[in-house]
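subagent[fold] <- orchestrator: predict structure for attached chain, return tokens only, no commentary.
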Amino acid sequence: MEIRFFQESNEAYGNVEDVVKDLNLTFIARNMAHDNYGDVTYILEFLKHPLVTEEEIAQRQKVVMAACDNTPFIYELRKVIVQTWEELQQSLKAVQDTRGKHLMEQTVIGIQVESIRNLVTGLRKIHQVLQKHENQCRTSAFSLFYDSFYHEEPPELLEEQQDLVMNLDSFKDKGEILLCADVGCGFVLQDADVLAVSKKARRLGGGLFSGKWGQVIANEEIYQSGVEFANQVILKLLEQCIPFMQRWQEQLNTMMRQAMFLAGCARLYKRGQESGIYFCMPDNGEETAEKVYELSLALQMLELPVPNTVPLSKYRSILVTGANQGGKSTFLRSLGIAQVMCQAGMFVAAKRYPLHAYKDIFTHFTRREDVTMNMGKFEEELKRMEQILCGAKKNTLILLNESFATTTEVTAFQIAMDLTHACLEQGVTTWLVTHITKYAKELYREGHDDVLFLSAGRQADKEVRFTMYEKEPGDTSYGLELYEQMIESGK
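subagent[fold] -> orchestrator:
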């Protein structure tokens, strides 16, 4: 039985590296990890792998909120799991390093005994954390983890394991291990089992060694042969423990990654509360993204950026035009980040947000030209767009930010019109920011009921800067108006 907090997704976004870069997901993951730098990679993996049904999202939301409501528990559990996993990694490496080397048997035994003992001790610590927070586990969404862990490692089994391993290393110092086994053909032990361990072997009748039910060994040569034989038996028994350790290596890896993600969610949620940054859990009863803001910008400034409210559920496409430096790209990124966090089962940066699962999300943002590019900017944009369109299917989402700004307006207009019509016909959702005024105006004249037209606020119209308003597309840059203002102010 797999030990887990929640079900994971195996499907990554189609152009996952672009999604990570365009939506600043690495920066968000770093803020979730805070001082635990090693957590960033694991947290980012959950942002890269979306849940693709509303039911899956709703189930994970419960676990995420349980983590946010029980931060001391999830922090403590994460710490113990990580420590146990790291020690197990080192132990297995140490065991592997003994292979093929001419080491004393007692040395090999010592390494393997220490490895097994560290694992059992770590499992015991996890048990103790669960016992300490038993009420929270049983009455919250942590019950899945609690039940699956105790199914795999029940208290009575752990107690038996601990009794055996706590003194196993005493064998190095001539302690006593009582075995029970059958002797098969060729004097091979079969079905060997460890019955008991004690720190010190008892001496009877002046002999050098005696087991609980054995006879006194008085001959030194026979005694040494017995010790060598016993060493071989113990090594064989310890080798049988390797699969046990490897199985726990896999289990702990899953536990660790998920605990890191949940601790990161709890940390981010708490930081938002302390900084006056609000969050909400997406709800399938909502249709509007209310007061959604750009989370990575909020984390940089530690204050709330200008939020926006936009209806999402009834529109297949959202097209944003308006003045340069009007916050259009920031607005688009705010929606993209919110949707990715929604499909990670997390809270989002908004007052209200609809719960909807897209099958995939693609981003196409402009790239700065650099010397490492092997093609022109326009060719590079077309190449990325071709890859997106090959992967885009019904109920996928594409975010386009100032795409095809590197070609002529005539060419950009034709590409944009063809792309939008194809997406509308295929049931692909597009949220886009464009500088192509002709394209925006023509699409508006076509009268699509499922396309929402927004424009960045203009101070000249007494609108709030960085706020998106529903309106007919107009001129984009307002260059003439700004020029007139400059001339007027210079008089």
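orchestrator: received. Logging for downstream: The first strand starts at residue 176 and ends at 184. Residues 203-217, 477-483 have pLDDT under 50 and may be disordered.
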